[in-house]
Amino acid sequence: MTSKQRAYLKGLAMKLDPVLQIGKASVTPELTSAVDEALEARELIKLHVLKNCFDDPKELANMIAERTQSQVVQVIGKKIVLYRESREKKKIHLP
Question: What angle do the packed helices 57-68 and 29-42 form, to 10 degrees?
Fold first, then answer.
């Protein structure tokens, strides 16, 4: 992903609300499958790491991205933005 594409996705992500929350259980198989389904449906999603989760958000983002074959767009504070092109319903066209 180029820096221009990343900047474009960051702009789109600013308007998004978090779709999923990561709590004290951290990254579970259920969370991974929910993220996978959300990425297939939306392509660009935002996650929120709750205060009771003591793991580092950057490490969580990398772990989830690896498990879902997605890309980390950005991690700001406790917010994670992930992108993966949909296999069937492509909505976002990168520059």
Answer: 70
For residue 35, the one-letter residue type is: V
Which of 6, 13, 81, 7 has the alpha carbon at shortest distance from 49?
81
Burial code (b: 16+ CB inside 10 Å, e: under 16) for 37-62 equals: ebbeebbbbbbbbeeebeeebeebbe
Q: Is the pLDDT of residue 87 over 90?
A: no
Q: Is residue 47 a contact partner of residue 82, using CB atoms and an 8 Å limit? A: yes
Average pLDDT over residues 12-39: 94
In 3D space, the residue among 41, 42, 39, 78 whose CA is nearest the CA of residue 58 turns out to be 78
Distance CA 32, CA 82 (A): 12
Round to whole Å and give the CA distance between 94 and 24: 35
Please report which confidence band the pLDDT of residue 83 belongs to, taking 50, 70 and 90 as the band edges: very high
